[in-house]
Amino acid sequence: MNTPTKELEKTAVLSGNGPGRKKTRRNNPKLFVCCGTDIFMYDLDGEQMIGRPTGQSTPDLPIINEYVSKEHGRFFTADGRVRFVANKTTNGTLYADRFLRPGEEVSLRDGDELRIPTFSDNRHSHIHLIAALSDNRIGFWKEMSYSSHDALTDLPKRGTLTAWLINGKHFLKSGEELVIGFMDVDDFKQVNDRYGHLAGDKALRLVGEVLGTCMSENGIACRWGGDEFVFAFIGNGRRRGNRIEQIREMIAESARKQGMPISVSIGFTRIQKDNPERVDDWIRQADRMLYLAKEKGKNLVCEYGIDRLE
Asked: What is the radius of gyration, based on Cα positions, of the chain?
């Protein structure tokens, strides 16, 4: 599965053949997908299908939107040049303000844009696909992509998390499950009242840093709002509770080392590939368990379907 890249991977190319020529480094072409306020960056390399993930379809460049077809089109990238071939789709693809015919091919220049209408009348809203071939263009859109992240913690916002959850569930393998946790800082108002809002911001950054580190390999964490955080990772069902308990302990230990006596409460749920519920239901389950952890005394972890108020 091709996932959005966080850093710009660079490839060295020779600027000339003569002696004394220096090597310059250029970024590989990128595709920036703008869905509302969320911006995702993908590497463009070789032949790649773009589309909506389903149980039977695993596109190279996934777009989580019901108006995107599972095989919306193909990108072909070679020698820094990018071509797009449209497929026969429900909503179609706009290029230069006209719909591409099925099978039609266009060569994309730096900054060219494809648009996918997200309403049946083709007027209300669009998903924007921007081809970025130059270093300046890639740098500009990378800066723009920061709008998808929380300014205080640098964690992704809700929209990015939602896309990751839907995509992650589709790609679950046999024996795997999606583990979703809802967490907040215990008595955060008292932290602000006693130590000031700057200390409160420091506490949130600390939590975000620990969460981001813990989710760096096969998961994601976002700031949900205020002192609330949501995280998710792919688990195999054996040590899911231990990993979440370790997150709680790591936050408490990091806070202690920085002289900040804070703790967190966490509720979590487990989702299998055949689970029929929606993302909102998953978040609601984890949130209910967070509430239960608070009721039981805080600084605890509770699991949906297992823990109950005594």
From this structure: 22
End-to-end distance of the chain based on CA atoms, in angstroms? 43
**Domain stops at, among 116, 146, 176:** 146
Nearest to 253 by CA among 265, 241, 240, 264: 264
* Alpha helices (H) along the chain: 135-145, 158-170, 188-195, 197-214, 240-257, 279-295
Range of the domain at 132: 10-146
Q: How many folded domains does the chain comprise? A: 2
| Residue 302 near residue 248, CB atoms below 8 Å | no
What mean pLDDT comes out for the span 188-213? Answer: 90
Residue 274 is given by DSSP the state T
pTM of the model: 0.61
Residue pLDDT, tens place only, 127-172: 999 999 999 999 988 877 766 778 889 888 787 788 778 767 877 8
Q: How many CB atoms lie within 10 A of CB 222?
A: 27
Which of 101, 125, 146 marks a domain boundary?
Answer: 146
3-state secondary structure 138-176: HHHHHHHHHHHECCCCCCECHHHHHHHHHHHHHCCCCCC
Q: What is the pLDDT of residues 233-279, one digit of tens each?
A: 988 765 656 889 999 999 999 999 988 889 999 999 999 888 877 88
d(CA 102, CA 279): 33
